[in-house]
Structures are given as C-alpha cells and as structure tokens.
Records
---
Amino acid sequence: MSALPDPHAASGRRAIELQTIGMTKIFGSLVALEDVSIHVRPGTLHALLGENGAGKSTLVKCIMGFYQPTRGSVLINGKEEIIATPRDAHAHGIGMVYQHFTLVPSLTAAENLVISRAHPPAVIDWRKEIAGLEAFLEKMPFKVPLQVPVASLSAGEKQKLEILKQLYLDQRFLILDEPTSVLTPGEADEVLGLLRGMTEAGDLTILMISHKFREVTAYADDVTVLRRGRMIGGGRVGELTVDDMSRMMIGDTKIRERAARKSFEASKVTLELAGVCALDDAGLPAVDAVNLKVHAGEIVGIAGVSGNGQSALIEVLSGQRDMSEGQLFIDGQDFVPQRQQMAKYKVFGLPEEPLKNAAVPRMTVAENIAFRSFDEPPIASRFGFMSPKPMRKKARELIAAYRVKTPSTEEPIENLSGGNVQRAILARELSGEVEVLIVANPCFGLDFASVSEIRSQIMDQRNRGAAVLLVSEDLDEVLELSDRVAVMSGGGIHYVVPIAEADRNAIGKAMAGH
Ligand SMILES: Nc1ncnc2c1ncn2[C@@H]1O[C@H](COP(=O)(O)OP(=O)(O)OP(=O)(O)O)[C@@H](O)[C@H]1O
C-alpha cells in the first residue's frame, strides 16, 4: 500500500454531474433564491454569473450544505441526495474553493494537505506522506513546492494549492468562487487553462462564480445567469455574446458613464508619506522607507503583486498598524491616523475585506453607515444618545444613492452579499466632503456595473480636489484611474511614473522587483 492511500485509484471517481431542482431559499421576508434549476453537465466548466446580491453564493451554499434550502433538491449523477452539511457534500465528491485563502500560513503545503484529510493519521510518517504526495502531484496539472511554509508562496501558488487540496480530497465537482480575483492575468489564464484540461479529460466538473466575461467566454462551456434570485437565462457559452450575458445580468439598469478626468494646474501636496516603515505581525519589515506625495486632485495608484507590503501600508494609513519609523503629513501638518484627526483632515477610506476591517458585522446597515457621524448631530442627540430616526433616514438616502441591496436599514450588515457590503461602506466613506481618500482594491468582487459606478465615484472625488491613494492588485484598474503609477515590491516603492509614461512591461518588471 502506498503511504498516502490514493483516493482517486481507490474510488475511481470521475467528473460528477449535478442538478438543482427548484432551489429556493428564503431569509425572513427576503426571497434570496427562487425556484432555480441548473444543470451542470459532467466534465464541463459551468459559469455562474449575476450582479451583486443576485443569489450566486446562496445557491452554492445550498449545494454545499451550508444552508438548508427552503425548497428544492440536488441531484448528483442523476440521483437525489440529501446534503445536510458540508461534510455530506464532501462525501459526495463536492468541494469548494473560496475567494480568500483557507490554508494555514505557518505550515507547509504538505502539512496543509495531510491535515485537511477527514481522518489524518494520529502519528504521521512524513517520509511516506511526502512520497505519497509527490506521486499525487505527478498526476496533477499544476505543481507547488511541498516543503516550504505556505506564507512564503505567491498568491498564484496558494490558489493552486487550494485547488490541489480539493483534488487531493478526491472532490470531483469543484465550486470556485471568483478563483482568479487574487491572480495576475497570466496566472489566471494558466490556472483556468489547466482546470479546463481536467474537465475536458472527464476528470472534473467545475461550477465557477465569476464577474469576468473574458474568463467566461474563454474557458466556460455553459453559463447560468441569475438575477434577483431567479434563473434568468443561460446556455452554451459559444452561442451567447457578452452583450447577451450582460443584458441578462442587469436587465435595463443604466450603467453610469465613466466620469472624465478634469485637469488641474499644479496643485498642492495634500498627503505626504516620509520614510514610512512598518513591521508585520511577526515583527519583520513589511513597509520599507516609503516616500510618496499625493497632490490635491490627483490619484496615485500603487500597483503590485499582493503580499509586497500593500496591506501593511494601508493599515498604517488607516491607523490599524503602528509605524516603526517615518512620518505622515496632511497639508504640511503632522498627521496621526486617529479618529479625531481623520475627521479634522477629512480622511476617508476603504480597506481590504471591508466586512472584517470597516464594519461591525452584527450591527445593522444603518448603524454601520452612521459610524462616521454617530457622534454628530442630527444622529447624536443632545444627551449623547444616537437618534435612530435621522440615522435611518440618512442610511435610506445612501442605500438608494449607492444602490445597496438590503431588505431594510435594520438588516445586520453581515447578511448582505459581499458586493453590497462593499457598496454600503463606500457609501459611508464617499458621502461627505473628502480631502484624502485611501482605497484598497475597491472593486474586488463587484459586478461590472458596480465596478463602473465605484470607479466613477473615485474619479468624482479626485475631480472635486481630493488626494486619492489607490492600492490595487488589478493593474488595469491602476492604469485606468491613476494620474501617477507607483509600484510596490518588497515593502518599498522604487518606481513612480506619470500615467502618460506608464509602460506595462516596465511596470511588470518593477512588480517583480527589478
Ligand atoms: N444569511 C443571510 N441572511 C439574510 N439574507 C441573506 C443571507 N445571505 C444572503 N442574504 C441575502 O440574499 C441575497 C443574495 O445574496 P448572495 O450572497 O447569494 O448574492 P451574490 O450573488 O453571491 O452576490 P455577490 O456577487 O455580491 O457576492 C442578498 O440580498 C443578501 O443580502
């Protein structure tokens, strides 16, 4: 017997066929999913499209057993099965890869794989396990280094490892939630191309949530489009145009025209970072002597591969991480990123993972939207209490203006879809007078109509004279919005160019640390 029982050989499991019949999920008074029947043919890559809040996550959570559908059933290889928990889904060969990594960073890839088994051995014989894992990797379309800590892998390698983990667990129906959102375009093509190879060989079936038409048209066989919880259309990708798909997604919702860039005469420096250094959680240098000036009416976009210090830099600027050295200035004055000074200098921002970093998940949408102004009239009453009526009124206005989909102002914000949490936080941050705006990956996980809307909002703030620091892993976003492009690598910024001189190749080299 081999060290690692080869689950594939043992079960001989191949690509799985999956159908949902009349899937319906009701949360209180909200029908999140209504009578959705989809058919994912075995050995195909099936894309699931829909605007933010359309019900994509709810559908896959019902398939995975995270939610119990109000009505409806799942057929696996033509047979109705009860999936009461994710464990049941795994037992049927259905696995899910999330947008965010679920690996343990301090463990190696090998350790992560072995502990992911339902019944890891009590005493692990590593020599045998490694031999078994190497034999497993031999048969896999992509490789990752097995014996280095996951923390030192690139985003692309981590994503590959997440997928490998599912295959190692013998899951032959994979649900991928926006699998390429953390990958460079090159890595995205590589991963999707290899997965497509596995589906074509009949080894795997994939249901992929995506907002990227390019990936859907290039790699998917079939598509299903959801709108407001209902299945609105779909079919063979080859028989549909991008226009067909986008019309199915948003109906006749108007897409906001991108705001034009207003030109300014030489303007003052608003935000200045001088020799900013910061350490990561392990006490190692994360931000290395960053010097940067952002002028009024200017967007400086910081491009870079994730994990090069951008998150720590954003945390420093939003007061969530101490600087180890350096200084910040706004309008030439010393700036300490604390609540009072942020209010004084009108500093607003959207950090990464807004539900975690910029919201209180269990509090209502109205309360979360009121955070910036809960201690100012009219929301604060004379006696220091919050007045619910003005708070709800303001929340209702912002919800309408930013098209946040929520059943009411009183819904806990954690119940909103990912894209709608993002919109609610942006509504809060962009609704006042903004002098400095600091945004990290503002369009992560947003549908195409929202991307257009949010980028226009950012451009509006710039045109009104705000100094905008945009950190984004999406190079296209940086190139589209920025007046100047900076590249962060290894914690430092050693490359800054005006947009007119920005060259993709040179930026790519700087991103790789050259
Ligand atoms: N646990 C919950 N309780 C209440 N409402 C919920 C819950 N989960 C989801 N919803 C609601 O169901 C609807 C569909 O949300 P879902 O997360 O499925 O959308 P989505 O298509 O995945 O959106 P996104 O692209 O933004 O992730 C939304 O209106 C959301 O607010």
---
Amino acid sequence: MLAIQGLTKIFPAPAGEVVALRDIRLEIGPGRLVTFIGPSGCGKSTLLKIAAGLDASYEGSITLDGRPIEGPSVEKGVIFQEPRLFPWWTVEKNIAANASLRDAAVRRRVGELIELVRLKGFEKAYPSELSGGMAQRVAIARALLRRPKVLLLDEPFGALDAFTRAHMQEVLLDIWQSDRTTMLFVTHDLDEAVFLGQQVVIMNPRPGHIRRVVSVDLPYPRQRTGAPFQEIRGVVLREFEKVEEAPVPDPGAGI
Ligand SMILES: Nc1ncnc2c1ncn2[C@@H]1O[C@H](COP(=O)(O)OP(=O)(O)OP(=O)(O)O)[C@@H](O)[C@H]1O
C-alpha cells in the first residue's frame, strides 16, 4: 500500500516560493493501476519524484507498506519519457544493468522480461537499432528487473506516435495483468488516462492539488469507441475543462 498524507512540496524561487503540491492525500492499494492527469505545472512529476524517493524534502508523509519513502530503492521502479538507455550496451545488458548476465538467475529474469515486453530476438541489439517504442519497452523491462512493489511512470509514451502509443498501452496492460505491480502513471492524454487507469486522479495547478478522483469501473481490454468508455471520458473531460478554466492567481502571491 502506498499511502500519502498531507503531502506538501514547496520550491524556493527568487520571486517567492512555488507550492508545487499542497496537502495531497491518497491511498493506493497493492496491484492498483492509477493514472494522474492535469495541466502543465500541477505537480504530477513532483509527486512521482517524491514517490520514487528522488526528492526527500517535503512536508507530510508518504509510505510504502508502512515505511516512509526517503530515498530510491529496488522497491520502486521509475520510467521517464525518454528511455535513458546506455547506447553501448545491448538490450539484455541494458535490462540487467548492474546485475551480471553471468548469473543464471539474472539471465532467467532478463529472458522472462524480454518475453514480457515482446522483444524476443532483439536481445543482442543496441539502442540505436531500436524504434522509440522498443527502446521504451527495454526501459520498462529494466525497471521491472528486481520486481519492484511499485512502478512509477512519468509520461512514458509521451514522445511516441499515436499508433505506437496505443500499442504500448496494450503492452503495459499485459505486463500489469501478468505481474500486478502497483502502477502510478502520469499522462497529459485523457484517452490514455481512462484507457489504462482503474482510477484517474485529476490534478489542479497553482498550487498543485487533487481536484477529483474518478473510478473507471470498466473491464479490460477496454473499447475506446464504446459508450461506457466515452461516458467516463466525458466525466474526466468536464473536470479537466474546469481545471483549465480555473482562475490563475496573481503571480505575486507566489503560488
Ligand atoms: N526544481 C524546481 N525548482 C523550482 N520550481 C520547480 C522545480 N520543479 C518543479 N517546479 C515547479 O513546481 C510546479 C510543479 O511542477 P511539475 O514539473 O511537478 O509539474 P507537472 O504537472 O509535472 O508539469 P508538466 O506536465 O509540464 O511536466 C511547477 O510550478 C514548476 O514550475
């Protein structure tokens, strides 16, 4: 269980402090897939970084299975918009990273992951030989190597074309369904948020806070063109429009 209580994050800035997150409260049970959506600057990446243990200066509490998150650990896998692969390493070495491929258990796990992310046959390829979607699948496999309890994805498909993106969403759902890793997935894309998430967390900027959490009680695989999907998409869209229309406070107020 990932439990967030009263989480507030303030960045000092020359023109006054920036309240990137204010009083975030959220509980995400094991194996859940939760998407986060909101306009630029609403604190989505900041929240993910804190959950990843990459930023430990915050107020409030964030715990994973009861233990405070204070730094990076193998319990948390992180995936960014760019795959951040080592160009001089093969696919399998990028997945194993610091673990040795001479170790049979590591080789077995890397093999399983290559199957899972549908890269069989590309074990010895280098990143320059991969498409954007394939490279991002390597990054996902690498993040899963040590069986993290939670996978944190910050717009992982944001740089991909629409076709590849739709394919990657299906790959990710396959992974989640076979592995049941808890996933927090940040996106700008409303369809993606509703297609993937069991819950969609809609965030508001200035200061970043949760506006509403919408449950998506639709079975997987979801049909984007179906009426139930469109209905929930409409609910999220209406909330999202309210977020966009929210008045911008005087920048002098520092929030
Ligand atoms: N290192 C930093 N120093 C100062 N302010 C920061 C820093 N990082 C983020 N911020 C501010 O905190 C707020 C939240 O930023 P964050 O990047 O988390 O938003 P976001 O919702 O992920 O935006 P985007 O969708 O554009 O990536 C913004 O106002 C941003 O300018």
---
Amino acid sequence: MTTLHPVSVLVPVAVGRPYTYAADRPLAPGTVVVVPLGPRHVLGCVWPGEVDDVPEGKLREVARIYDLPPLPESLLRFVEWLANYTFSPLGMVLRMVLRSPNALEPERTLVGVRLAGPPPDRVTPARRRVIEIAADGLAWAKAGLAATAGVSTGVVDGLVQAGTLELVEMTPRSPSAGLDPDHKPAGLSEIQSSTAETLVASVQAGSFSTTLLDGVTGSGKTEVYFEALAQVLREGRQALVLLPEISLTGEFLDRFARRFGARPAEWHSEVGAKGRERVWRDAASGEARVVVGARSALFLPFRDLALIVVDEEHEGAYKQEEGVTYNARDMAVVRGRLADAPVVLASATPSVETRVNADRGRYAHVRLPARFGGAAPPAVSVVDLRTNPPERLHWLAPPLVEAMTEAFGEKKQSLLFLNRRGYAPLTLCRTCGHRMACPNCSTWLVDHRFRRILGCHHCGHEERRPELCPSCGAEDSLVACGPGVERLQEEVVHRFPEARTLVLSSDMPGGAQRLRLELDAIARGEADIVIGTQLVAKGHNFPGLSLVGVVDSDLGLANGDPRAAERTFQLLTQVTGRAGRAGQASRGLLQTYAPEHPVIAALVSGNREAFYAQETEIRRRGRLPPFGRLAAIIVSAGDRPTAQAHAQAMARMAPVEPAVALLGPAEAPFAVLRGRHRFRLLAQSESASLLHSWLRAWLQAAPRARGSVNVAVDIDPMSFL
Ligand SMILES: Nc1ncnc2c1ncn2[C@@H]1O[C@H](COP(=O)(O)OP(=O)(O)OP(=O)(O)O)[C@@H](O)[C@H]1O
Ligand SMILES: [Zn+2]
C-alpha cells in the first residue's frame, strides 16, 4: 500500500484558502495539479504553508500532477499579496495565473518537411512550385508550404512519398528567442545614454529598485529603456514591458523589431488562445526573453524575471475595474519587489503618486528634459471661446480653422481631439424638453448617427432614434445637443472637402484590430486631418503631425473627481505632445472658456513643475493619495431601498477609529448602472496599513450581502462615479 501525502491545493475559484488533498508523493509548492472539487475536476496549484489536519481517510486524491516545473515562488507570493491587498478571494487571483490551461499540456512537436532528394520522375507544375519554394533548404510546416505554393497538401505528401521531401521534427521557438541585444542600437544623445546607463546599472545590480523615467513627449524614453532590455538579453534573463492595451500597435512592435532583430512575445486581448498558450509556456520555460503585454501579463509565470518596465505609467487604463480590481502599475512594483527585480516607470506626465514617491527618494528619478534631436516642443496657446466663439452649430473657432487651413495648405497633418464618442452626447425634445435617457443607467443616451442608434456607454443599451418625442409625441422635434467626434467630422468634411479625414474612436466597427491598422496608417501620413477621442493621445508616434487642436479643453475639468486636474493635464500634454515629433515646428491650440484655469495655464506656459508642485500641495492638504489612502465600497442592488438599506447597515457596523474617516453612504454619481442601484462609501486614512486592517475588521463585522445585494471593494480607487 502506498502512503499518501497530504498537500494544500489552491483552486482557481472564489475561495479564500487552499484545501487539503492527498497525493502519492510529496509535492513542491507551485506544482500544478488537477483535483476533484465537488462533482468536477479543476486545475489547482500546490500552495505553500501548513497543511490542515484532516483524517487521512477523508482526503480526496490529487487526480493528476503536471510534468512542469513548479510555478515560481515569487509568483505565489505575488498572488497572496495581491489577494490580501485588494480583498479578493485568493483563488480568484490564482485564476489570473492559470488562464491558459492548455499551456500546461506537453507540447506537440510539429512534423515539417524539407527538401532531401532529387525531383520525382513526374514533375507537374504544382510539384515544381513546391520544389522551388522548398529549395531554400529550410523546414516547412506541411500546410504552410502547400499554401505558399498554392497547392493542396496532397501534392506535398506525394513529394514525400517520392523521396524529394523528407519529414523532420520542428520545435516551434518563441519569437523572442531570436532577440539580439546588439542588432541595431540607436545612437543615443549624451543625456539619453547617461539615463540609459542608470537603467542598465539597475538591471546589472540584479535586485529590486524602482526608477521613474521622466521624459517629455518625444524625448526618447522608449529608446532609453530599450537599452535596459538589451542588458537583460545579454544576461540571458527575462523582461516584461507593460503597455496600455491600445498602445500595443504594430508601430511599437516594428520599432522593437528594428532595434532587436525580432518581435517580442505579445500578450494582449488580440492574441488568440494558441498564441497565449505559447507565451505562457515560454514565460515559464524562460524562452520568452521579452514579453510585451497589457496589464494581465503581470500574472505570467516568468522563470527568471530581471526587469519590469511600465510604459505610460500614469495611464488610468492600468486599473482593472472588474472582478479583482488592481492597479497594474502599483502591482508591477510589488511583483518586482517579490521577484527582486528592478522596475522602471516611464511617462512624460507621471502620476502625482509616482512623482511624490520620486521626490521623497523612494523611487530613483531620471529625467529627459528635452525632445530628441533638438526638436522643439509644440507651442501651446489658447483659443478663448468667450471672445472667439465658433459659429452657431459649429465647434471649431476661427483661429483653429485658420491654423488647420494653413497646415493643410502646407500638406501637414492636423489632429482634432475631442473626448466624446458618437455624434452628440445628448438628444432632447425642442417642444417639451424631454431628454433621451438610458432605461438602465443614470446617463443620457449618446447619438451614434453612423450606426443609427442612441446608445448608452455604460450598459450597452441601444435603441432606434424615435420619430416622435416619446414624452409629448411631437414630430421632428428631437435635436442633437453638443458635439461628438462624428458630428465634428461633419464640420471638418464641410470645411475641408479636399482633405483626407479620419475619425478614430474605440467604438468604430472593426475593433482593436482595425484601430491598430488606422493608427499605423496615420503614422505613414495617410490622413490629413485626424479626429480622435483619447485613444489617439496614448503613446503613438505620428511623425507628420504638426497641429493639434483640442476642441473642448474644459471637458475633463468639470467633474468632481479628485484626479480631474491631473488627468486633464496628462491627457492634454500627451495629445499636444503628438505634434512636431519629427523635428518640424508644431502647435497646440486649446479651445477653452477658462484660460486662467491652473491646468490650462500650466499647459500654455509649459511649466509642468509648477503644476506638480501645486497639485501635490492640494493632495497634501486634502490627505489625498499619496498622502492618504482611499478605499471605496460600492453597494449595489436590484432596487434603490435595498441598496441604501444595506449601505446604511454597513456604515453602522464600521469600527470607530479616529484615524480613519468614513464618508457616505451617498448615492453614486451614476446612481443606476446596468439596472443596478448604487451607493458608495469612501474610507480615508493617512496610514495604508491602518486603513487595511480597519477595512478587514469592518468587512468581517458587516452584514452579509444577501439576495440581489453586491458589495465591491475598490482599493486605491481611480473612478468615483
Ligand atoms: N537616439 C535616437 N536616435 C534616433 N531616433 C531617436 C532617438 N531617440 C528618439 N528618437 C526618435 O524620436 C521619437 C520619439 O522617441 P520616443 O518615442 O522614444 O519618445 P518617448 O519619450 O517615448 O515619447 P512619448 O512619451 O511622447 O511617447 C521617435 O521617433 C524615436 O525614434
Ligand atoms: Zn445604460
């Protein structure tokens, strides 16, 4: 009889701790297994720590042990850390690691074919084409060779039988296995190379550190952190580069390939299941040298992580808002600490949190204060809409139209930035004043003319634009109010009928794939006037762009979010920073009703230090992050009284602690979202650890969520809606 060994196994479902199973041999923590769970079999991971004392007869047995190296200990600790920090079930965080179950299966070796002998006696035209292509002497996948030659695979089989081709085993290699640190280094400027040296030194040190790479738009931050990646390659170790999803364009990958001779491994929503399996497996084996990915790449099982770069670290898109809520930038720092690897945070407009950490010396701070090659920053000025308004039902004021006319005349690209998708943000009835609202959310429906619908940007509700006002029945009385990018396009096409105009918005048909293609097309100069929402602002390189017009600079300043000023400053710096990157003179024009607003003033003067100093002071006084920590609790339910009652009951159970302030419950600004009524509570404290233990005590004491009630905890919230 074999003795059974008790092991702790964590399963990737909503559980807070591992369960005990029995295995026929001792298993190292990190070993991936299959275990029975109720009636099912699920994946699991052998978890470190004490094993529960369960009588042996009661234990269920591990059903399968994968023949893989165990997941790295630093990854298991990261899962634990993140679950604890975000108040998420441990198993749900593990689930983010075990997302590609097929990656665990042993890899099937592909059988390919290669030219091996003389041509067969009978050479048909189809056979000749295959032989010509195979003449390169390389191993080809059968289907690939057939497709390239434009023949059926039967033709290839025939040539194998004839002995012209032979079968060979092909082991697919990670594309990033061929990366060459010295393929084509950029000739760095003096300041670029001294900055690069600092980053290279942090890789060489081989231990945890955090460095803010703070360089104005177009200063060459990417080129500089590429040098740190080169060092990782020289050491034969692994690096992770995080980018906001939408910045993962062909342009970035091509640029990477020019520098290193091959593409990195990619990890983002457009990569199919097979591609992901490959990256997962290669991260685990160490074969993937550089992975470039969106935030979830943080959960890949890197065998030998030597560097994490977070590009555009200020990006709100790093915050995962659904399920396990976490900020990938902050968690990258944690991952780096646990893996003892350096972390580089890069941005032209660092978050105030990161800036303060650098100012306090917690992060090293390296700067690139000027654009590469002496290119001047765009000259930013204001179009005061109070004195220079656009014509009725137009959105472009005369000075902006003039600048666009000039740019178009000189065959230069212009970009109009308006952070509003669709045709118009509001539709109302001229007769009775009725506003078209979402039935499920506290929002107005957005007019999408292109798709002929009124739609909600929160729940996805869509309806046809009615002929009659649903409230008073008046005919032809509904009018569009305000501009979205589609309406702006009407004006642009009308004013510049000759120009090639392109609208870029995340909801255009074709999805992320088409968007990437269009961004690449713009970079190649295939549009004269680009109209875009915020996604064009993000890290793209449009060499031909020399004018940026911000149609409504005040848009983001209007809401009561504590980060409104910071976000607007970042967004407008980034979007104007798209201009003049190839060295040409360039301009940014900000249409505004509030030219004296500190954010607008800082953009015009180019005095970012003044902006940071002022914003830091506001945060300090308000005990806002990073001087204080916030945690939001969002209570939602199918009806308003239930949500309110539960939020109030929770508030009553909050432990009394003078160092923690609890605000609310208050109805959320989006009081109804996707049919759910929402109340918010906000806890604030100067001490992160105190806030954390207080929250834990509170959540334990609070009444259980029952029925339709849901309680979501959002640590370090970015959204207050
Ligand atoms: N040393 C260099 N040699 C050649 N070209 C360079 C060099 N440094 C930067 N460039 C070019 O300058 C442009 C801006 O560089 P890069 O995109 O790296 O800047 P960035 O600081 O990352 O910009 P942003 O924050 O605006 O995205 C690119 O076209 C890049 O190829
Ligand atoms: Zn809705």
